[in-house]
Amino acid sequence: MTRELYIAVVGPSAATPAEHALGEQVGRLIAERGAVLVCGGLGGLMEAAAGGSAAAGGTSIGVLPTADRTEANPYVTVAVATGMGEARNAIVVRTADAVIAIGGEFGTLSEIALALKMGKPVVGLDTWELGKRGGRVEAFVQASTPEDAVSTALAAAELARTS
Amino acid sequence: MTRELYIAVVGPSAATPAEHALGEQVGRLIAERGAVLVCGGLGGLMEAAAGGSAAAGGTSIGVLPTADRTEANPYVTVAVATGMGEARNAIVVRTADAVIAIGGEFGTLSEIALALKMGKPVVGLDTWELGKRGGRVEAFVQASTPEDAVSTALAAAELARTS
Amino acid sequence: MTRELYIAVVGPSAATPAEHALGEQVGRLIAERGAVLVCGGLGGLMEAAAGGSAAAGGTSIGVLPTADRTEANPYVTVAVATGMGEARNAIVVRTADAVIAIGGEFGTLSEIALALKMGKPVVGLDTWELGKRGGRVEAFVQASTPEDAVSTALAAAELARTS
Amino acid sequence: MTRELYIAVVGPSAATPAEHALGEQVGRLIAERGAVLVCGGLGGLMEAAAGGSAAAGGTSIGVLPTADRTEANPYVTVAVATGMGEARNAIVVRTADAVIAIGGEFGTLSEIALALKMGKPVVGLDTWELGKRGGRVEAFVQASTPEDAVSTALAAAELARTS
User: Fold this and answer.
1) Which chain C residues have a beta carbon less than 8 Å from that of B84?
2) What's phi and psi for B110, nearest 5 deg?
C-alpha cells in the first residue's frame, strides 16, 4: 500500500467518550476512503481510530513510543516499536500525508506543531487553538465533523502529493 | 496483526543476484508461515524480501531511514518514514521478534549487533562471522538455507515470546 | 557539569532582531546563573542564545537535526549531530530541566508541547498562546523580560529536581 | 568547541579492570591532544574514558540512552538525555569524526558497524574481529596500545575532515 494516502490521527490516550466516538468515526471514514491510518498505537483515541479503521476493513499502523510491540492496541494492522518515547511523534507525522488532530492533550499539540513545521496539512477536530499576543492564529483548518475532517485531510493530502 | 510473529530480514541495498534470491525465498517463507516481515523498506535485499512476502500474500513493514515514504520499494504492505537515517536500524530490530541477516553490508552488521544487544534471536545466512583475539565467537546461529533460517527464526521467536 | 541545571532555549532559526536580542540576553543570564544552556545548535535564536552564553563564559550544547556536526553555530560549546530531523526536538527538551520558548515558529511550539507532555516547566517569552473552544488555556508561564524568564525557569527547574 | 576533532570512545558498561585502564588512558590522551570525547555517558568503559578526559582537563559529551540526564557518570562535561535506548548509538557515532572501540560488547559492535556504514574511521583496541565465509575481513584498524589508537584515530579524523 505504497500508493494510497496515509492519514495520521492523533489524540489523547485518555480520551473522553465524545473524543472516542470522533476517533472511531474518523478511523472508519479513512478506511472507507481507501487511505491508510497512522496512529501512535496505544489506547484511548488511538485505539478508537484503529478500531474504526478495522471495522471498515482498513489498514492501520501503530507507531509505539515503547520498546514492546505487544503493547499496541489490538486493532492496529501492524505495530512498530520505536523505543524512543515522545520522539516517535515525529515519525507518526513524518509517515503521514496529512494529520487529523482530535482533543486537547499536549502530545497531540506536539504532533500538530511538528506537522506544521514539516509543511504537512493539519485538520483539527475539537482540539487546540493557537494565538499570539492576544490574537488568534489560524495555522490549520478546524473541522466541525468527522466527515468534514476526513474529506479536508484527504483533499489536502492529495493536493500536497501532486504539487 | 498484533498476535503474529514479526521477523526482520536485514541485508544489503546493493544485493547480489544470489542474495536477492535468498531474500525472496526468506520473505516468501515468512509469509507462508503466517508471520509479518519487517525490513528497511528500500531496494536490494529489502525489496527482494518484501517481494517474496507479497507474492505469498503476506504482510510486510518497511521502516525507512529517509523522510519520504514514497521512497519505499513497491512491495512493502506499509511504509514508515522515520527521517532518522541509520538510527532507524534500531527500530527495525526493536519491532521484530527475531532477525534474519543476509549478506555482508555494514548496516546489516549493525542490525545483527543491535539485536544481540537487545537479546533478540539472530539467524545468519551467508553473512558476517564474529571473532575475538583470533578465535571465532558464535554469537548467533548460522543457517544454511532459507528454509533453515526461517524455521530457526520462527522457533526462536516463539520461544522468546513464551519465556 | 552533571550537577548544574540545564535550561533549554528554543526559538526560530529566522529570528527577528528583537527575538535575537531576547535570546542573547537569556543565554547570557543562564550562563551568569551557572546553568548549562541546551539549544538546537543552528542559527537565529539558537545562535543568539549560545552567543550570549559564550559571552558570559557559560557552557552550551547544540543538539542538531542534521548529520553534520560542523553545521552548528560557532558559539555552542559542544555540538551533537543527531541526523534525526525534527525528532531531535524531543532530545533538546528531554535533556533540559526547564524550557524557555521565544517567538512563534512551529518547531518552537512543538518543543513547548513536548516539554509540557514530559512534565517539564515551560516559560514563554513573546511566544505562542494556547486555547480551546474560544477560551485561553494557561498551560505555561508567560514571562515579560529575559530576567523574569530565566529566574522563573531556574526556580521551576530547581523545584522539579528536588520534588 | 566546534573546530576541535570529536572522537567517540565506545565500550562495555561492564568493563573489566584491563578495559577500564585502556579506556582511562584513551580518554586522557584524547584530552591531551585537544580533542573532544564523545561517549555513551553511562558507567564502565564510558566512565573510564570520561574520567581520563576530565583528569587531563578535557571536554566530554555523554549521549545517554535513558531519559534522565542525572544517570550520566560524574565525569562527563555535559550529558544529553535521548530517551531513545539503543538508537542513541547512531548519535554517538554520528557526532564523532572517528571512533575508538574497546572490548567485546554487542553495543560496541553496533557502534563499530554504524561508524563503518557512515564512512567514519574506526580503530579497535582488544575488540571484535570480523569475518566472512571462514576468512578474516579487515574492515577497520586494530591498534595495540592506547597511544596507537588515539594517534591513529586523530590522524584518520583529520584526514576525513580535509578530504
Assistant:
1) 83-85, 87
2) -65, -35
